[in-house]
Design a protein that fits this description.
alpha+beta; Trna Endonuclease, Chain: A, domain 1; 5-stranded mixed sheet; two-stranded antiparallel sheet
Length: about 150
């Protein structure tokens, strides 16, 4: 991580000094679910975008993220089938893009915004799977946008 430090030099002008540091994020909130794992996943998503850039199909981002998760030493499953139940009857199947460390659902999208359908889809995944947290990531023309979605039920 690059840290920029601004100080006043003897002449009253600002000088910048840069130093490589290994700073850990300072957690200001105590109510976040899986903060360290989430930060690691978010870093992997940004690195993926930085490496391959904008404009690709969702399936290529998914393949790149899978390779990056593997390189990052995270255990994950792709295209996890989660049955949709109604009164003990299976009425359908949801497929999660990723289930990381058995804790966080990661759903990838391509586009410059999150539409309501994508957010509702992730909420359904949380409800059907019983997981506590999902990350919805959109690979946009300018970078990665993220939403943390919490299962409150």
């Amino acid at each position: 991580m690059l840290l920029a430090v601004k100080i006043q030099n003897g002449e009253g002008r600002r000088a910048k000094f840069y130093e490589n540091t290994k700073m850990l994020p300072i957690l200001k909130r105590q109510d976040l679910i899986y903060p360290e794992l989430s930060y690691k996943i978010v870093g992997i998503l940004f690195d993926t975008f930085k490496s391959i850039g904008p404009g690709y199909k969702e399936k290529y981002y998914q393949r790149a993220v899978a390779a990056a998760l593997k390189d990052g030493g995270l255990s994950f499953k792709e295209q996890v089938a989660i049955p949709l139940m109604f009164k003990e009857n299976k009425i359908g199947v949801n497929f999660l893009d990723f289930l990381i460390e058995g804790k966080i659902i990661l759903e990838l999208k391509k586009g410059d915004y999150f539409d309501r359908a994508a957010i509702e889809q992730v909420n359904q995944y949380l409800k059907a799977s019983g997981q506590k947290l999902a990350l919805l990531a959109a690979f946009t023309s300018k970078g990665v946008k993220l939403k943390r979605i919490v299962n409150v039920i």
